[in-house]
# Entry
Amino acid sequence: MGRALAGGLIRHGLPASALSIGEPAEAVRRALADDVGCVVCADNLAAAAGADVIVIAVKPQEAAGTLTRLAPALREHRALILSVVAGIRIRSLEAWCGADVPVVRAMPNRPSLVGAGATGLCGSARASAADRELAQDIVRAVGTVVWVRTEEELDIVTALSGSGPAYFFLLAEAMSSAAVKLGLDAAAARTLAVATLYGAGVLAHGSDADLARLRAEVTSKGGTTEAALAVLGAAQGLPELAERALAAAAQRGRELAIRYGEESVR
# Structure
């Protein structure tokens, strides 16, 4: 995700020289230097020196160690912490890097890699209006941005848009497989399923986002779409299944916060 944000910022006109990345793995450093063109350091302290914004894009279990090592530098130079670490709460981030450091949490998703991301943002009490605007400008470089009121809502964002692309891929995969079982060539089924997934997204994104209306416009009374939706809808409990799936993902986000964040600062 750090690579996606760096690439998005450069595509939107930020000079590569304004960015630096900390990455311990030598092979990844070389790839980043070639692909992104910015400074890539083996040491996070060197990468973060003098920075106005520090993006933390590590696994949840690595967040405590990463920020604890950066804390001395953050005390000398106030920087905005923009965290894209799944599940880790603002309280934990502040405990590791200093309570007076402004923090904004972001939950982007994988389509950010192609500039079509969806990101939820939530700021700490110490994040000023300018801090929030800066964080928003950064993540807007890779797609759509929505501010949420609480970190509990950010758990729902994680379940909805963070994990959401996998849900759509699963449905497209299932549709393709079903078409093959009905007799369609496998390559044609995959091509049509992928194109339908893409086209539906473009239609929804370019409209007023009234999903019920968009669905109704495809559904002729007594037609083929109505027959399929009757199976997918209430008869099979699709709305309830979606609710259970999102609830499970949101709960897992809360568990990650406890395991890798809140337990570490007690």
